[in-house]
Amino acid sequence: xxxxxxxxxxxxxxxxxxxxxxxxxxxxxxxxxxxxxxxxxxxxxxxxxxxxxxxxxxxxxxxxxxxxxxxxxxxxxxxxxxxxxxxxxxxxxxxxxxxxxxxxxxxxxxxxxxxxxxxxxxxxxxxxxxxxx
Amino acid sequence: xxxxxxxxxxxxxxxxxxxxxxxxxxxxxxxxxxxxxxxxxxxxxxxxxxxxxxxxxxxxxxxxxxxxxxxxxxxxxxxxxxxxxxxxxxxxxxxxxxxxxxxxxxxxxxxxxxxxxxxxxxxxxxxxxxxxx
Amino acid sequence: xxxxxxxxxxxxxxxxxxxxxxxxxxxxxxxxxxxxxxxxxxxxxxxxxxxxxxxxxxxxxxxxxxxxxxxxxxxxxxxxxxxxxxxxxxxxxxxxxxxxxxxxxxxxxxxxxxxxxxxxxxxxxxxxxxxxx
Amino acid sequence: xxxxxxxxxxxxxxxxxxxxxxxxxxxxxxxxxxxxxxxxxxxxxxxxxxxxxxxxxxxxxxxxxxxxxxxxxxxxxxxxxxxxxxxxxxxxxxxxxxxxxxxxxxxxxxxxxxxxxxxxxxxxxxxxxxxxx
Lengths: 133, 133, 133, 133
Known about the structure:
The structure is a homotetramer.
Chain A: H1 5-22, E1 27-32, E2 37-42, H2 49-64, H3 68-74, H4 87-90, E3 98-103, E4 106-114, H5 118-130
Antiparallel strand pairs in A: 1-2, 1-4, 3-4
């Protein structure tokens, strides 16, 4: 099973709907199980920083098979994975907004959202994930 | 004047239509006047190499304000810009498939396509550009 | 279909046999369809340069879905893809020794070999590929 | 004295046995005294993130001549080496799973394991190290 381009765009559209509802422009990215981009969209006026962050959140979620939020807890000073964020040339993002995409219990990709507060990013990522089916 | 996200997606859809007509899966990217991603789509089974190439063609076209095809002629051994392709960490692409997007004579962004032969990439980039209006 | 770790090691062992027969120490790498490493082995006294080259040859072959040898012809000055070697932070290798691995006509990974002359690298890559079945 | 390719593969196999016993797929890497890869193996379904982490743990252990676990204690906020993890393009890993390999008191290489919890990674790295003799 894999995420088709059409599915990725549907997930992004769902995340965009949530972003519009919240009223904060977002960047949304979907990657495949190899961590490679399928599709990415930057809403008008979204932060430049969010281009890399959204893609890297999606990458991180598939690379570690948990959400970036969970990884973030493990990466705090004194926790077991503190320091992971500098590996892979800094591609690992350790705050919320990146979620793995699973099919029948197998991770087949990731979605990443950046642009608002972490809570807003997570809400949009969840909305995007809900559109996978 | 700037390229909105909706316009970028419309340009990408037009390039995709051409790719479907040709029968070769493509990656299409649209960047703004700052060279930053607005949207990027990888069609199912498109080459992994095309992810970076499409984005970098779009970047190159806006960065030098000519098509990557024209830049390519100037970058051949013995020509005036020979060697430019190694600058900017290798982001400049020097073969066809990247086009600047102009509005009233002002460059406001770029579109890049990769996935087929250079001729096919150029045809899709032109189809995408035609959707800008 | 995917290349298992055991299959990758069997391919590497076959390439090693060929390298031993030739008498030149080699580095051999096998990557999956996402371009990510499955296994890599450096024979004693193989060139340090070959560590990156072998991995990047394998990456390149799956990323462009042709051998690095074929890509190399297209990347010569005056040819259609001249300049591609600087993209992707220079990961594309444009001389022989990288081969895509196909299953039922679908590219599912790549093998890359470096250490000897290009002809020797290609011979070892072919030996490794032959062990896939 | 140096770690031969055959020794590296034997160490990796021993670490794999431990990973199989634990039931978590791992990536294992062995590097020489120059910090350069000798061999690396990714077990089926191991995390993508572990490819870089395993190699960099092995690198780190030989580069600082202590385990990545010990380095991690020194790299916490307020400790003497806080911040080291961003040097060398982020290659230094500061949590457990990387061990130096010594012969007669001389460090001749490193082994790195990633894929499970830090405790599991350390257990596999120790198993791999035990196979050196």
